[in-house]
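Today's session is about reading a structure prediction critically. Students often jump straight to the picture, but the first step is always the sequence itself: look for stretches that repeat, for charged clusters, for runs of hydrophobic residues. Only then move on to the predicted structure, which in these notes is written as discrete structure tokens rather than atom positions. Here is the chain we will use throughout the hour.
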Amino acid sequence: MRNTRRRLGQTLVGASAVLLTYLLICERGFKIALLARDSFSKLLATGLTSVFALQVFVIVGGVTKVIPLTGVTLPFISYGGSSILANFVLLALLLLVSDRARRPG
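Below is the predicted structure for this chain, in token form.
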């Protein structure tokens, strides 16, 4: 019984860490959108962050049985080459918008 509690505690800590990381990515994405100078960059950053947040919400909601499961993968966790590639492209675009917004000039 003691081993079961330890594993459950480790699982909860790990799951909380992953969810906190996703929350941090979403918060930073929306902050990038606020800092962007032109309207296209603002819309791009907002859209990319919203897609990322929706993807996380759908999977976490499906796993916790709040909403029905779909075929969407959890970003950077679930298996799938094209999904991981698409999420890295999403983050790269957010980094480009952030870099552009922070450049002097």
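Discussion point for the tutorial: The chain has three helices and no strands.
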